[in-house]
Specification:
Helix content: 40-55%
Mean pLDDT: 90
Strand content: 5-15%
Distance between the termini: 40 Å
Number of strands: 12
Order of helices and strands: EHEHEHEHHEHHEEHEEHEEHEHHH
Strand order of the largest sheet: 3-2-1-4-5-6-10
Structural class: alpha/beta
Radius of gyration: 20 Å
Number of helices: 13
């Protein structure tokens, strides 16, 4: 492997013209990140399956019109290598995954094939493309061995995962570690010039998520039909955050890798302030209040697959080393989310064409303009 080009400058790097590969760009988080990177004028290529639901943000916001979109499966190693060779990315954001806990019980082998071998395919393709400088692999807060303790998990806590989804993401973290140590060792950065990091985020919410078995889209669907949303585990505590919060962290992390290289090549948590790790019932009650008359919830009867009862993230490293902190309180995040769904529902009922691109871009722009480093909740460093 030859000497790679010099890094771009600074955390506030100029993304204009930077070649970026984004896997999973047709999904919920991927669509938001694709729009953000388009706004930064990155030269963007996406690789993903078709959108995962009939109604989806990728089509609603016309995400594909300002980027190259390749529809394909990251389980196809040859396809992944071809996309790398054709686009020659400098920065890679790897988001493509099977992202649902309950779906992983139905298809454990498919979940492992996508989340583990798909990650290996992406990292192996990065190994053979000399333009690559920075790779950010997105996993999940559920990659930790959850001991149901009351304090938040740090990046050096033990990995694990009870269910196939969570466990597959822990395995993906091990794949990242092995490739980093074996092929992109930080101690040998001057030779290879590639920095690989992983990012672990909490439960994200935001407009345009229509996945089944997720709290917010399940609630929105029920409210629109005038029904009560059924909740499996109302007392489960999760680190809720608006989707733009971790995406800002991913972008900042990629910029750090481009600027500082090996010093950022490690695992990072991106979660909410401690006060926003809330029970499911608090979140759905707030959503129902925002929606208005007739909205509410009920306990879903019967037995359900195991899910963690309590999960919190320690984000002190991102705060100290990246200068990243959550900007939105959970109540604000839910209001922004409700505004997106309300706008789309209004357009759908009016019978016009559903075009949510400008509205979604406006939410990104508003987020970028909001006060930097809000101190409404202190983070313990």
């Amino acid at each position: 492997m030859g000497q790679r080009p010099r890094a771009l400058e600074g955390l506030g790097m100029n993304w204009s013209g930077t070649r970026v590969l984004l896997t999973g760009h047709t999904g919920f988080k991927g669509s938001w990140l694709a729009l953000w990177l388009q706004g930064l004028r990155a030269e963007l290529c996406g690789l993903a399956l078709e959108p995962p639901t009939a109604v989806n943000l990728f089509e609603d916001a016309q995400v594909g019109k300002c980027m190259r979109s390749v529809i394909g499966d990251i389980r196809d190693a040859d396809l992944v290598r071809r996309v790398f060779a054709e686009h020659r990315p400098q920065v890679v954001f790897h988001l493509a995954a099977q992202p649902l806990v309950r779906a992983s019980y139905a298809d454990p082998l498919g979940t492992y094939a996508t989340n583990v071998m798909g990650t290996a395919h992406v990292l192996d393709a990065a190994r053979s493309e000399e333009a690559v400088r920075a790779v950010v692999v997105i996993t999940t807060d559920k990659c930790y061995e959850n001991r149901e303790w009351p304090w938040p998990y740090r990046e050096n806590d033990r990995l694990g995962g009870f269910d196939p989804y969570s466990n597959s993401k822990a395995c993906a973290e091990l794949v990242v570690s092995a490739y980093r140590n074996s092929f992109f060792n930080p101690g040998d950065y001057a030779r290879h010039g590639v920095a690989i990091a992983s990012a672990r985020a909490g439960n994200v919410i935001g407009g345009g998520d229509w996945a089944p078995d997720r709290l917010v889209p399940d609630a929105i669907r029920a409210f629109q039909m005038g029904q009560l949303v059924r909740i499996r585990n109302p007392r489960a505590i999760r680190p809720w955050q608006h989707v733009l919060e971790p995406l800002k962290g991913y972008i900042d992390l990629a910029a750090l890798l481009m600027d500082k290289g090996a010093s950022g090549a490690e695992a990072w948590n991106f979660g909410p302030n401690p006060a926003d790790a809330r029970p499911v019932e608090w979140v759905v009650n707030e959503l129902a209040r925002l929606w208005g008359e007739g909205a509410g919830w009920e306990q879903e009867p019967g037995q359900h697959p195991h899910e963690a009862q309590s999960l919190k993230l320690d984000i002190s490293k991102a705060a100290a080393k990246l200068g990243w902190q959550p900007r939105l309180q959970l109540a604000d995040a839910l209001a922004i989310t409700q505004a997106w769904y309300g706008e789309r529902w209004h357009r759908e009922r009016a019978g016009g064409k559903i075009d949510m691109r400008a509205f979604t871009e406006a939410q990104i722009n508003d987020y970028q303009k909001c006060a930097t480093q809000l101190n409404r909740d202190k983070i313990e460093l």
